[in-house]
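Re: beginner question about structure tokens

> Can someone show what the tokenized structure looks like for a real chain? I only ever see the sequence side.

Sure, here's an example I had lying around. Input first:
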Amino acid sequence: MSTIFTDSIEQAASVIAEGGVIVCPSEGVYGISCSVLNEAAVKRIIAIKHRSSTKGLIIVDSSLEYLREYLDTSRVDDKAMALMDGMWPGPHTFVVPVIDEFKNAAVRDDHSAGVRISAFRPFAEICSLAKTPIVSTSANISGENPTTEIASLDPRITDNVDLVLTLPCGGLSASTSIYNTLTHTLIRPGPMWEEKLAKIIK
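And the corresponding structure tokens:
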């Protein structure tokens, strides 16, 4: 079956809800997504990208409604909780411990996961319509460069997904920030981090 190319968020959400894998615009570059609750689809993304299974994948949702039960927030202190509350929704990923029962290919080796609550419309609407958090990882073979252009997507990616959502990316100039809540380490500074941080600590 050939890959569907469409600008319909509703169609993309339907594919996600049915256990499929899509290419989806993100705040900065095109990514590959599926429901995080579909283990087979998550493993399919890892295989498509030729990515190490130990690295985990970023989990995205429009709110914590569906994700909350999988996160071990008892291990997240007040400082980190305040940061997440202030930064979300937005292009900021937080590494958060997950509960022992949540065994998933998207989870990192140390049993934590990168989580982002996003206000970016395609993400937010897909999660809301499909009623599931999704994984997001750049739509490129591991070690190669991501892209912001549909025409530059690698056929090795697009030929192996079910749908490509052709809406534009969000225009973010660099990769999203990543903050580890357990070590209080800013792993990767990203756009808008310092601006939002200044408002939180006022």
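Each token stands for a local structural state, so reading them left to right follows the chain. The chain has a mean pLDDT of 93.
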